[in-house]
Specification:
By secondary structure, this protein is an alpha+beta fold. The protein folds into two domains: about 70 residues, 2-Layer Sandwich (Double Stranded RNA Binding Domain); about 60 residues. The protein contains five helices and four strands.
Length: about 130
Amino acid sequence: MKTVEVIVEHSNKNLSAYIEGAPVITVGNDIKEIETNMMEAIDLYLESCKDMNIAPVEILSGDFELKFKIDAATFINYYSNIFTKAALSRITGINERQLWHYAAGVHKPRKQQLDKIQKGIQALTKELSSISLL
């Protein structure tokens, strides 16, 4: 099964999403809504292709699963109700002021910084998933 990347971006008060190379876009208030709406948009597109007797774009042909990609600014702003900049700084090792710059779009993080954010989030996810409450 192939993976189809859905690019999620901050758009005013909500999120927007698209698939590069495919004529599908959607909006939503959260990632779960984006996922639901994107699947609906893909289904409508595939149904339209079938009705018009045309082949869908290659990326949406056959079996696939969606993977959501989000830029650092969108991630920091979207999850700001869960992670303060101080908390994100602690789990990533990135200076809090630098995180503010990323969130505001003043600077774009280099690959090394993106890797730090990704590794910090993955480590926290692993730790949290290993916890069982009594």
